[in-house]
Amino acid sequence: MIQFPGSNCDQDALWSLRSDLGVKAEYVWHSERSLDGFDGAFIPGGFTYGDYLRCGAIAGQSQVMQAIREMADSGRPVLGACNGFQILCETGILPGALVQNIDQRFVCTTVHLRTENRDSAWTTKCPDVLPIPVAHGEGRFVADEETLRKLNGDGRVAFRYCDETGGLTDEANFNGSVESIAGVLNERGNVLGMMPHPERVTSKKIGSEAGLPIISGFLSVLANA
Amino acid sequence: MRAGFGQGLRSNNHKSPKSGSVESVTILDMVTVRVNVTLKPSLLDSAGRTVAKSLQDLSFGEVEDVRIGKTITLQVSEFDEARVKAMCDKLLANPVIENYTFEVVD
Questions:
Q1: A199 flagged as catalytic
Q2: CA distance B50 to chain A (A)
Q3: What kind of architecture, by CATH, is found in domain B29-105?
């Protein structure tokens, strides 16, 4: 669990990994150079460095991100949710970028995601449609046409915003993301970035465990590695 | 604010006890570089669109479009174009979504 100044979903996410997924998880401060001994990394949400310059820009330059890049290259699982997704895009570990929501609003609600490709270890256990919370003001995914062609062609779009029946409508695409994209995978498929927060819904005790299939992707990626 | 404070400190450091304030200011050898970062034209600037709408509501009907960028002002001890370009590429701008220009200003 990588922590930066301004991370604020780290405690929920650590709880989710330990209590609901049942794995060992520890905090790692952003100044660490090494992730030796860790099988995977979760980059949590928040407002690292106050979102100065661009969301995730300063955190993307942290020392720990070089270790994250090595972890990604080695095929181990890396999940970035919300600000974690923004940081992964800023470093180029994932393609594209996240910009201001189309209507300028910070949106905090539960949305529906359509699972686009179940071949990925991150999505293999996901149902067709998942209700997952979002909380962001800058989550409009953008990418150039060539990148989009690759993402679509290689099955690297993990999730799209949809209505509760799985329909891709303008209304469901609340932040204006290109092609309603909510989450993407790296080329190897072991790194997932998404704006919604699966770690907030991993236990019925707090209302829903809809995010558990995504979080359990940590184990699926490792099993495939 | 911070740049002004830094300049003040530096000029004081360089000032000999009896020199006048004019001389202390001219000793400054910092170069000011102004970096201008804009969203790529292909991207919808949602903040700019809102500002355009507001200007139109204020009866500035001639406003067709607004794009909002940001200006980053650097104080550097020496100007090296390649190094400023590297700063822009590595951190100040995101090439996926932004364009940038920079210039040395007096």
A1: yes
A2: 8
A3: 2-Layer Sandwich (3.30)
